[in-house]
Amino acid sequence: MTEAFLPYEVILGVDTHLDTHVGVVIDARGKWFGELSIPANLTGYQELWRWAQSFGQLRSAGIEGTGTYGAGLTQFLRTKTVEIFEINRPDRSQRRFQGKSDPTDAENAARMVLSGKAQAIPKLQSGVAEAMRMISVARRSAVKARTQTINQLRALLVSAPDDIRNRLWKSKPDQCVKGCEQLEALGDTVLLKTLTISLRLLAERWLYLTEELKKLDATLDSLTKQGAKRLRDQFGVGPQTAATLITIAGDNPERLRNEAALAALCGTNPLPASSGKTVRHRLNRGGSRSANNALWTIVLVRMRSDPRTRAYVARRTAEGKSTKEIQRCLKRYLVRELYPLILADLKEASCP
Questions:
Q1: CA torsion, points 82, 243, 347, 236, in degrees to nearest 10?
Q2: What is the pLDDT of residues 259-279, one digit of tens each?
């Protein structure tokens, strides 16, 4: 087959929203073909696919929000063997000169794929990592709501009459909640009746959220024991930290080229900040802060209880390193240690 009869390859860029998506198609030379707005449902995805195919062979696409509004379109295009690239928010300086619109964002997404700037591969969201993420989201909101509830209950007790505050205020949350749950009428006035109802309802809410957390923790513990066996066997790694690290890797860990890529995702890789004769590195403020916190938690446990880590801390302290500097080094070493275990766990979990 001669070059003239080869299928014409095009690139799709999509700006996603809750109800509608906007797509733009360009060719390998950067020529703009057109734009199309579709509803964010299966019918719309099929329409976008047929429309893009009418210009040539669609093999790659850049999509904004592949884990949120664009998740459905990403999964659909994957079934059509289209290579998907995740598009981050456009550069602000570029947006300032070019303006902002949905077709413009979609075209920028396509051109980022064409230029090679877009290289991030989105997560599959179809396996154990996604299941752990869902449980972690529910658990995080339950923890936040329970903390808010006990703070509100204590705030009401602080401003309550002295005799009520002295009787119900306890230093431990569960004891304080127990007293408020069993509370009878505090008095006949409107203020005391309202205070009684408020304290009792807040106490019941705290107890309900506590039971909910127990169920979520049990589910997370079971998931990590099945899908992160090797990770859970490591010193200092618990259900929550294991779930966080598995989630950041995703159900298609092959998108992580090496352990340095995982370190960048977790924000533990030092960034070069040298100039002239000064050679130094600075902290990476990017990456997933929840994954960074999970590594910090494991490091903290090991610094307190692991003999090998304690010996390393003593040696580095003698060299003049601060505690924070030692923790940063340990987090980077920890990524190197856990990376092959994460890959092995996810590979085993993906097998039928």
A1: 150
A2: 998 999 899 988 887 888 777
SS3 assignment, position 173: helix
Separation CA 55–CA 25 (nearest Å) = 8
Q: Measured between alpha carbons, how far is 292 from 335 in angstroms, rounded to an integer?
A: 10
| Same domain? 164 vs 150 | yes
**Whole-structure pTM value:** 0.80
Domain limit, last residue, from 61, 91, 115: 115
Does residue 148 sit in the same domain as residue 240? no
H/E stretch holding 271: strand 271-272
SS3 label, residue 333: helix
Token couple for 339:
């990376």
- Rounded Cα distance, 308 and 42, in Å: 54
Answer yes or no: do 149 and 56 share one domain.
no
- What's the domain range around 188? 128-227
pLDDT, averaged across the chain: 89
Among residues 227, 261, 276, the one where a domain terminates is 227
